[in-house]
From TrEMBL:
The lineage of its organism: Eukaryota, Viridiplantae, Streptophyta, Embryophyta, Tracheophyta. InterPro entries: Aminotrans_V_dom, PyrdxlP-dep_Trfase, PyrdxlP-dep_Trfase_major. Keywords: Pyridoxal phosphate. It comes from the Eukaryota. Residues 89-364 form the Aminotransferase class V domain. This is Aminotransferase class V domain-containing protein. It comes from Chenopodium quinoa.
Length: 454
């Protein structure tokens, strides 16, 4: 494929996403929102957007057009349409995340693939002796499960050492998180380990908490951590993200969770090294897609744009996503603010109804919130919460993930189960009333999780 001459150029003018001057008659109506998501199962209260996201019919139709273009004339699609289409999506993302260069952004399948890209880079550094045996990678205890397994698979097997940062939950002060993170870096110092990689969540998955990533990245710079990878799987479309402000070396976020793309697609940002870093031998450019194909060696954005015959359509519909969100007051920023405000209002309503509490302060939430479940439900293990989740789905028609928070030493009668509540534009208050009433029914019936094992 021909290279794109704009890869190293400055990014295009930022599109106006706040749309404050849109005439009210052009804004999407509640009935039109319902029509866009009419493919959702109407019997299910879907309050779990955080797991798999959602995609409106307008974007699904655009995806289908791309799929038919491929099926109609594959050679034309692959050799003439695919690369320009992916580049168009990348250009539109550039100002949304405030990255300085187009060649810093690649599109990959999901955040898990992006994690593999970064960790394979780190693993090669160990195998090529740029990193020494016993050098450390630091990650959060609440890192996403597949990310934790990837860190161990790539770093530990390459001779590195993994340090997990224990985080408090419930948590109402970001300072607690900062202190624990500093403690982990100090532990590495005490053990005479050089920290080569820090993996930091922007929004932890379970339990969900917005972390102070800018401050944590700043600490990493102060402590000479070589590489910082921010896993922002939930971030884009959920809260504002700014690559220049955050300052990480790598950042990934799924576009199919909160940004309305069909599954699955994520962007991976790889910061380009400065001249000083080049002189010091920092090898940021040795980053490759885990699937080696014809474009290997031409840079990650190009490698990722052709990894064999597959369905690329989810990577090609960013223009239609931006057209969709422009129909809402305030565009994507307006959607994010309304989702945040609504999920906090709903979370507080549920906590009051059950006599419990939220799992963190409102400013540490985005479009998801953790709400304590009544202690009388007898939640005592991870297996309990998986079975209880299935029970809510099958008996009450509610789809919601649940987190088990083990009691600390000496704790008696504490909340051990938290529901992760999401709010997205398709949700109505009846979805949450349905969940509230289901929990109240279980309490009224004297139900405990022990009954799920009958």
């Amino acid at each position: 494929m021909a290279s794109n001459s704009s890869e190293n150029g400055s990014h295009p003018k930022k599109p106006k996403l706040n749309h404050q001057q849109i005439n009210e008659q052009t804004l999407i109506s509640p009935s039109e929102i319902a029509a866009e998501f009419s493919h959702h199962d109407p019997t299910i209260a879907r309050i779990n957007n955080g797991s798999f996201g959602c995609c409106p019919s307008a974007v699904i139709a655009a995806q289908r057009r791309w799929q038919l273009l491929f099926l109609r004339q594959p050679d034309l699609f692959y050799f003439s349409l695919l690369r320009p289409g992916i580049d168009s999506s990348r250009r539109l993302l550039l100002p949304l995340i405030n990255a300085s260069r187009l060649d810093e952004i690649s599109l990959v399948d999901n955040a898990t693939t992006a994690t593999a890209v970064v960790l394979q880079y780190v693993s090669r550094a160990f195998s090529e002796r740029r990193f020494s045996p016993g050098d450390a990678a630091v990650m959060l205890h609440y890192a996403y499960g597949s990310v934790k397994k990837s860190v161990h698979a790539y770093v530990t097997r390459a001779g590195g050492h993994v340090i997990e940062v224990p985080l408090p939950f419930p948590v109402f002060d970001s300072g607690e998180i900062v202190r624990e993170f500093r403690n982990a870096l100090n532990l590495a110092k005490l053990e005479n380990r050089r920290v080569r990689l820090a993996v930091i969540d922007h929004i932890t998955s379970m339990p969900c908490v917005v972390l102070p990533v800018k401050e944590l990245v700043k600490i990493c710079r102060e402590e000479s951590v070589d590489q910082v990878f921010v896993d922002g799987a939930h971030a884009i479309g959920c809260l504002k993200i700014d690559m220049e402000e955050i300052g990480a070396d790598f950042y990934t976020s799924n576009l199919h969770k909160w940004f309305f793309c069909p599954p699955s697609v994520a962007f991976l940002y790889c910061r380009k090294k400065e001249r000083k870093e080049q002189e010091e031998g920092v090898e940021y450019d040795d980053v490759h897609h885990p699937v080696v194909s014809h474009e290997y060696g031409n840079g990650l954005p190009v490698e990722s744009a052709w990894i064999g015959t597959r369905d690329y359509s989810s990577q090609l519909v960013v223009p239609e996503v931006l057209e969709f969100v422009s129909r809402f007051e305030g565009g994507i920023e307006g959607i994010m603010k309304r989702n945040h405000d609504k999920v906090i209002e709903i979370g507080e309503m549920l906590a009051k109804a059950w006599g419990t509490q939220l799992g963190c302060s409102p400013e540490m939430c985005a479009s998801m919130v953790m709400v304590g479940l009544p202690t009388c439900l007898g939640i005592q293990s991870d297996d309990n919460v998986m079975k209880l989740r299935t029970h809510f789905r099958e008996k009450f028609g509610v789809e919601v993930p649940i987190y088990f928070r083990p009691p600390k030493d000496g704790e008696i009668g504490c909340v051990t189960g938290y529901a992760r509540i999401s709010h997205q534009i398709y949700n109505t208050v009846d979805d949450y009333y349905k969940f509230r009433d289901a929990v109240n029914q279980l309490v009224q019936d004297g139900f405990t999780c022990a009954e799920l094992y009958g």
